[in-house]
Amino acid sequence: MSAAAISTGIAKVGQPAPNFDMPSTKNLEKLNQNVKLEDYKGKWVALVFYPLDFTFVCPTELTAFSDRYEDFTSLNCELVGVSTDSVYSHRAWLQTPRDKNGIEGLRYPLAADMGGSVSRDYGVLIEEKGIALRGLFVIDPEGVLRYKVVHDLNIGRSTDETLRVISALQTGGLCAAEWRPGQENLKV
Question: Which of its termini does the chain have fewer beta carbons within 10 Å around, N or C?
Answer without folding.
Answer: C
